[in-house]
Amino acid sequence: MKSEYIDRPAILAEVNAAFYQYEQALITNDVATLNELFWHDPRTVRYGAGENLYGIEAIQAFRAARSPAGLDRVLQNTVITTFGDDLAVASTEFTRAGNDKTGRQTQTWVKLACGWRIVAAHISQMS
């Protein structure tokens, strides 16, 4: 891919906005927004720290059952890269109060007719 297609400023701004909208929804447990920002498709995948979720229905069920306590976190080393006009990868590390382990999160975002949506996510903790 030609370098002029990577990190186009307008596209990068769109993905940054979507990423930080997701982050705000995550720490405030805004389940409706979290669900909205995932692709509504059975092929959507979310590998969590303790669960593997296949399809939007499983992701939505996880969100509905998750405790809203202790979701606040601090991000570091966030890297968002766009490829063309409709594909992006967001990677970040995070820490939570009372937990000395570093978490890691990677999201694949695709621009669909409904806007930017996460089509795959992976969350893990370093031991």
Count of beta strands = 6
- Summing up helix and strand content along with how strands pair, one would put the structural category as alpha+beta
**Tertiary shape:** globular
* Cα distance spanning the termini: 36 Å
Task: Provide an overview of this structure.
The chain is built from three helices and six strands; from the N terminus they run ααββαββββ. With 127 residues, the protein is of the alpha+beta class. A six-stranded mixed beta sheet has the order 2-1-6-5-4-3. The relative contact order is 0.20.
Q: Descriptors for this entry?
A:
3 helices; 127 residues; alpha+beta; six-stranded mixed beta sheet
How is the secondary structure organized here?
Elements: H1 9-27, H2 31-36, E1 45-47, E2 52-54, H3 56-65, E3 74-83, E4 87-96, E5 99-112, E6 115-125
Parallel strand pairs: 1-6
Antiparallel strand pairs: 1-2, 3-4, 4-5, 5-6
Question: Care to give the gist of this entry?
Answer:
The chain has helices at 9-27, 31-36, 56-65; strands at residues 45-47, 52-54, 74-83, 87-96, 99-112, 115-125.
